[in-house]
Design brief:
heterodimer, A: about 110 residues, mainly beta, four-stranded antiparallel beta sheet, B: four-stranded antiparallel beta sheet, 11 strands
C-alpha cells in the first residue's frame, strides 16, 4: 500500500503570508495527487487535482506542483478564509485513494 | 447544482447494523463511480469503499471488508452503505463522494456530501 505523509503537521501564519505544504508518497505516484481543504465540521473541498490542475472556482492563489514522490501545495497570499486543514490524496494505487494525515493552518 | 445528501447515521451498539444512504441530484448519477470516506473524531480522512457506475464492481478497505457492503440504485439516484458487525473503531463521520477523472485519467473526488455521524457505543 502507498503511504502518504505531510509536513508540517501544523503551521501558524499571518494573512498575506506565502504558505507551502509538502506531501510525500512512499513510492512514485506520477501526478496522481490531489489536494483538499477542510474546515471544522465541513466536508472536504477539492482544490487541486492531478498535482497541478486548479479545480474550477478555486482562487488562483492556490497552486500545486510536483510529481513522482514529492508534491507541494502553495498558497501565495494567505487569506482569512484559508485557515483550515489541508490534506493530500493519491489516486495512483486505486481503489484505495489514500489520504495524507493533514496540515492544519492557523492564525499566528 | 450537484448535491449529495447523506442520511442514516446514529448511535448503534457494538455488533449492530446500520445502513447509510446518499441521495444524489444535479448530475447524471448513473455515469459516475461513487465512494464512501470516513473521518473519526479529530482524525484524518480514510477511504472506505468504492462502486463503479453500474454497480457491478465494488472495492473495500481491509478494515471493513466482509462487514460493509456498498451498493447503488441508479433509478433512485441513491448510494448506500450497509454496515454490519459494527465496532467502536467504526465511529466516524461518513461522507459520500463523487469521483471524476481528469483528461490524464487521474481520479479525484470533486463533490462531497455533508457527512453523517455514526457512533458505535454501548
Amino acid at each position: 500500500d502507498i503511504q502518504m505523509t505531510q509536513s508540517p503537521s501544523s503551521l501558524s501564519a499571518s494573512v498575506g503570508d506565502r504558505v507551502t505544504i509538502t506531501c510525500r508518497a512512499s513510492q512514485s505516484i506520477s501526478s496522481y495527487l490531489n489536494w483538499y481543504q477542510q474546515k471544522p465540521g465541513k466536508a472536504p473541498k477539492l482544490l487541486i487535482y492531478a498535482a497541478s490542475s486548479l479545480q474550477s472556482g478555486v482562487p488562483s492563489r492556490f497552486s500545486g506542483s510536483g510529481s513522482g514522490t514529492d508534491f507541494t501545495l502553495t498558497i501565495s497570499s494567505l487569506q482569512p478564509e484559508d485557515f483550515a486543514t489541508y490534506c493530500c490524496q493519491q489516486s495512483y494505487n486505486t481503489p484505495g485513494f489514500t489520504f495524507g494525515p493533514g496540515t492544519k493552518v492557523d492564525i499566528k | 447544482e450537484v448535491q449529495l445528501v447523506e442520511s442514516g447515521g446514529g448511535l448503534v451498539q457494538p455488533g449492530g447494523s446500520l445502513r447509510l444512504s446518499c441521495a444524489a441530484s444535479g448530475f447524471t448519477f448513473s455515469s459516475y463511480w461513487m465512494h464512501w470516506v470516513r473521518q473519526a473524531p479529530g482524525k484524518g480522512l480514510v477511504w472506505v469503499s468504492r462502486i463503479n457506475s453500474d454497480g457491478s464492481s465494488t472495492s473495500y478497505a481491509d478494515s471493513v471488508k466482509g462487514r460493509f457492503t456498498i451498493s447503488r440504485d441508479n433509478a433512485k439516484n441513491t448510494l448506500y452503505l450497509q454496515m454490519n458487525s459494527l465496532r467502536a473503531e467504526d465511529t466516524a463521520v461518513y461522507y459520500c463522494a463523487r469521483e471524476d477523472v481528469s483528461q490524464w485519467l487521474v481520479g479525484y473526488f470533486d463533490y462531497w456530501g455533508q457527512g453523517t455521524l455514526v457512533t458505535v457505543s454501548s
